Amino acid sequence: MALSKRVLFIFQAIVCLCFFSLSQGNQQFSLRNLPPLQKASSFAAMRPETYDYIVVGGGTAGCPLAATLSLKYKVLLLERGGSPYGNRNVSYLENFHIGLSNMAPDSASQAFISTDGVINARARVLGGGTCINAGFYSRASSSFIQEVGWDEDLVNESFPWVEDKIVRWPKIAPWQAALKDGLLQAGVSPFNGYTYDHVSGTKVGGTIFDETGYRHTAADLLAAGNPNNLRVLLHASVNRIVFNSQRGQLKPRATGVQFTDENGRLHQALLNSNCDSEIIVSAGAIGSPQLLLLSGIGPKNDLKSHKIPVVLHNKYVGKGMADNPMNSIFIPTKSPPRQSLIETVGITEAGVFIEASSGFGQSSESIHCHHGIMSAEIGQLSTIPPKQRSLEKAQEYAHTKLNLPKEIFHGGFILEKIDGPLSTGHLALIDTDVRNNPAVTFNYFSHPQDLTRCVYGIKTIERILRTNRFSELSANNDGFSMERVLNMSVQANVNLIPKHTNDTESLEQFCRDTVITIWHYHGGCHVGKVVDQQHRVLGVSGVRVVDGSTFSRSPGTNPQATVMMMGRYFGVMILRGRLGRAAGV
Predict the structure, then answer these.
(1) Which listed residue, of 177, 183, 263, 525, carries a Cα 20 to 30 Å from 416's Cα?
(2) What's the pLDDT score for residue 30?
């Protein structure tokens, strides 16, 4: 569905307020074995063949999964987006905010708005969320690994497989160093140094950006596969999984998928006749439950309302959707800080994570997408109720802002986000076009413990701002006024939720009014309800789901490390299950 220009404009502001996950790294990984990346329209001219595995979604999990399976089997990887290579808005840290806010039909980022009124984004590019996030790399906690029931030895083999290829240690930026010192002075201790591990206290994590600011993504991991066995199609939008429901069959069996190419032409890719061949859905927490529904797996009444033939009634598909709420506070500084994304994190015992970003408000491009943050200073568009905002008002404000001194936009962000969360919602189809976003509800802060954690996080940021380290950075000689920075945030255009601008003394209300996303949404295909422990879809044969849609909570401070590891983990698990020692992995 097309977004209005007003929403487009507001979304660009949020992109600059919120900053995704960041990653780590050690050594460079050669892309010489990267398989050819072909347009989906080329499928018609290819020699007809069948596949051992068809992976739907070349994202954070799908790329390492496809690469691993291709070591022994013939794999078709279908990605609805384009290539990340040669796209400067994807590839370079300095363009992070521009790439994320670019909502052209062929861009790497597709915006959606939850029914809660929070503007969000999903990846639409080979490499998935690793192409549009903030790059932070931090492993899941050991308790998470135990909860999901994964083999710890295989987990500990799979994380380094990713890290050795695309993860690096950051050269810590000044704003990140200031946060480190501020966290320790505020009592978020001890300092755990540079580590991938999820441990309480303050640490520096890894990054998928190298020393030049170049981004290394999950797409790079395809080079670890067998290019002779791996076919990658771009701009391939999978419309549905095809099932064969013959009489006498205990379960409907997947036989292939239907997909549309970049020209709108329909194609069908087929599995071979081997009973172990599978469709593996790795389309992300929005795309995977959406595809199951479009394929006839889900609540039967919902399917019938869209005239979708019911393959299997399962009331849990699309349920239990969750998004970790984030609240971000802008900190004005004396001089422009260097650009940085997340490198330092404070992991509190209360289940609150503190991170930071800086330097994305000072370029001519940034000024366009940074329009909400200085609301209390310059009294612009956000003083108008969301439903009364018009394109004309937005353009008028943007033009006015171009004439403001850039010094007004000097500063960085400190953000808090919560573990879990405990608040959950649901996903439902709006129509049967896979290219359109479904309706998603996250019910932010509906669970009281989430709200309590948010308040704790804001109070932690207040303690950080009162430390000597941040007093030195203040744009005012008298340091930071918490009331002032809260007012600046509550009046900014960060979402479409009505504001309570006279109630900034209530931190609970502040949390609700200024909630934004950190793009860590998950759920919709939970283990035990939609898939089994091996992630095979319950009630049918030949389909698995391998991505964050199976999670009941987001892993660690930032999920990308765990999701990339997950792709490798399940690829190895499947190979060993079929071949034993002959798998060679």
Answers:
(1) 525
(2) 75
Q: What is the pLDDT of residues 493-513, one digit of tens each?
A: 566 555 555 554 689 999 998
Check the annotation: does 317 bind a ligand.
Answer: no
Per-residue pLDDT tens over the stretch 308-351: 999 999 999 999 999 999 998 888 888 888 999 999 999 999 99
Rounded Cα–Cα distance for residues 323 and 519 (Å): 7
Domains located in the chain, CATH noted: 5-25+89-216+325-418+445-514 (3.30.410.40)
Q: Is 146 annotated as a binding residue?
A: no
pLDDT band at 153 (very low <50, low <70, confident <90, very high): very high
Q: Which helix (H) or strand (E) holds 414?
A: strand 411-418
Asked if residue 30 lies in contact with residue 223, where contact means CB atoms within 8 angstroms, the answer is: yes
Which helix (H) or strand (E) element contains residue 578? helix 560-579
Write down the pLDDT at residue 471: 82
Distance CA 54, CA 79 (A): 11
> Which residues partner with 527 through β-bridges?
531
Q: What percent of the chain has pLDDT over 70?
A: 81
* pLDDT on residue 502: 52
Q: Which of 198, 371, 520, 522 is catalytic?
A: 520
Q: Is 434 annotated as a binding residue?
A: no
534 annotated ligand-binding residue: no
> What's the rounded Cα separation, in Å, for the pair 575 and 585?
8
Give the whole-angstrom CA distance, residue 540 versus residue 504. 52
440 is in an annotated binding site: no
Instruction: Note the pLDDT of residue 21.
Output: 35
257 known member of a binding site:
no
Q: Using CA atoms, how far apart are residues 354 and 444, in angstroms rounded to an integer?
A: 18
Residue 552 scores a pLDDT above 90: yes
Burial of 106 (0-12, 13-18, 19+ CB in 10 A): exposed
Q: What angle (nearest 5°) sits at the alpha carbon of residue 57, between those of residues 140 and 301?
A: 95
The answer to whether the annotation marks 568 as part of a ligand binding site is no
Amino acid 406: pLDDT: 56
342's CB contacts (< 8 A; 6+ apart) are 19, 20, 21, 22, 134, 135, 136, 176, 205, 355, 356, 357, 558
Structure tokens at 538: 């319950």
pTM, rounded to two decimals: 0.89
C-alpha neighbours within 13 Å on the C-beta side of residue 109: 26
Average pLDDT over residues 44-56: 94
